[in-house]
Amino acid sequence: MFTALPSIESVQSVSQDTNLLIVGVVTDTADEQKIATSGVPTDLAAKYLDSFGISVTDLAESLGASAEKCQVTVLPPPADKSAPQLVLVGLAGKPSDENSNNESIRRAAASAVRAVTKLPGLDGVKVAISFGLDEAVLEAAEGALLGSYTFTSYLSEDKPSAIGSFEIVSTEPANSVVEKAKTVAEAVCRVRDWVNTTASDLYPEVFANQAKELADSTAINCEILDEKALAEGGFGGLLAVGKGSVRPPRLVKFEYRPEGAKNHLVLVGKGITFDTGGLNLKTATGMYTMKSDMAGAATVLATTLAIADLGIKVNVTALASMAENMPSGSAYHPSDVLKIYNGKTVENVNSDAEGRLVLADALSVGSELSPDYMIDVATLTGACIVALGNQTTGLMSNSSELARQLLSSADSVGENLWQLPLPDYLQDGLKSKIADLKSGSAATLGAGALYAAQFLSNFVADGIEWAHFDIAGPSFNDGEANHYLSSGGTGVCVRTLVDFISGLED
Ligand code: BES
Ligand code: ZN
Ligand code: ZN
Questions:
Q1: Which residues of 444-466 are buried (b: 16+ CB within 10 A; e: fewer)?
Q2: Does residue 502 register a pLDDT over 60?
Q3: Which residue has the CA at smallest separation from atom 13 of ligand 1?
Q4: What are phi and psi of 264, to 5 degrees?
């Protein structure tokens, strides 16, 4: 069902049966014009010298290896067939340089691994990574695992080589660090798998059931509300959006309540398994990537699973609103008035602005729980892509302190997050003539991401510190893979959220 990641372990020396060893290339401290290698074991260096009559560094230099970030050079194997073949990757500068930060280690490991998966006939290969940098074991492990990901479920042939296992070399044992990297990478790749799965295979019922199956093997309690329960509960936004589809909506609720936890965080995710735009139908190109419109739901569910696996002592509730937005005889209309879970009525101005409606119900439920923090994650607006492009998440928040913490978490895990304002005056544009508010400002030009966020704020109860992540751009990469950035679903924001939640532990 899900892409299996290679196994990974922490080791103090490269195992006998290792096939490939990834090491670093840095600039020589004595001579800036020259390169040096970082992490080559002395016995392997001797074998290379025996085989080629020159040092590993000279061999690498003759093959054009450089310390430039992420540049990969594959050396020929040594004569001794039992010894591993070296793969070199530029670490950008000297190991101690400021520009050689941990993010560059994550990217370097991923670039080297990605190059390895392109080599033929390496199925099941054992790869070790030795950068000679004990402080970057987590990043090396994460980069390796994330860079090894390719989505092959729909390929009948020509699958790329799948790496069998990784070992991360460090002087001190780092088992728990490597375990953590594995849990986090698994969560990121779970989001990627969910996003990459086509809308005919992943619709609300299937998505919800898969989430429950995963939760059932953890300490998370999972509840699924089906269309009947949603009708009884008054989930007018989710029901309206799901009305045009033969595949009914679902609301998935994860509850993780570890002993000793003090803080409570509610996560809310947009789970539109396909967004056609409904009666306000999208264009062919606009619709093509819309199987990814459930990335927010996937992110909050996978993050909560990772938090439970890591045993982090924070109460987390995840609410994932799942629906398929289709045009049909039963579809909701522009100008329909819907009643959201918290009782507020909303005039639908555009059936393609469906995300905010399904989020409104979930944010209302979240508000009832009076959490300390509430964060929603959503592929919400094309406007956010116009503002920030496809590699930066838009952050909007009613709390400058929460925003500061989230920006700091994103920075520490190498994700791009940028705060946009949430000006109150935009509420004027959301006034409806016939309902409490309308879902968008039909007449306004610009600020689409801010209007969407301002709309959502009506469903967040007073006193809750709330943040909204608009991941419309970075959740899906319709270009080529690059370092640990995969093609297709990316799993963006999982690592930022895991870091932030870990920080709420005491
Ligand atoms: N799912 C889209 C936003 C989106 C666009 C995500 C491109 C990823 C890539 C969302 O439901 C949508 O269509 N929003 C509209 C809102 C508008 C009608 C007010 C948009 O952004 O155009
Ligand atoms: Zn839409
Ligand atoms: Zn959408």
A1: eeebbbbbbbbbbbbbbbeebbb
A2: yes
A3: 352
A4: -125, 125
Residue 122: the pLDDT is 82
Kindly tell me if the per-residue pLDDT of 222 is higher than 70. Answer: yes
Whether 159 is catalytic is: no
- Residue that has been written with the tokens 């698994």 in this structure: 186
- Residue 200's alpha-carbon distances to 83, 127, 203, 343, in angstroms, are 47, 36, 7, 33
- What does pTM read for this prediction? 0.97
Amino acid occupying residue 454? Q
Report which secondary-structure segment, H or E, holds 142. Answer: helix 137-147
The pLDDT-based confidence of 160 (bands split at 50, 70, 90) is confident
Rg of the chain taking only CA atoms, in angstroms = 24
Distance 472 CA to ligand 1 centre (A): 8
Eight-class DSSP state of 349: S
Substitution site in 288, 380, 381 for ligand 1 pocket (most atoms within 8 Å of beta carbon)? 381
Determine which one of 190, 356, 438, 495 is catalytic: 356
HEC sequence for 69-130: CCCEEECCCCCCCCCCEEEEEECCCCCCCCCCCHHHHHHHHHHHHHHHHHCCCCCCCEEEEE
pLDDT of residue 402: 98
With cut-offs at 50, 70 and 90, classify the pLDDT of residue 294: very high
Specify the pLDDT at position 100. 45
Q: Which residue's CA is minimally distant from atom 22 of ligand 1?
A: 382
Query: What pLDDT was estimated at residue 445?
Result: 74
Q: Is 282 designated active site?
A: yes
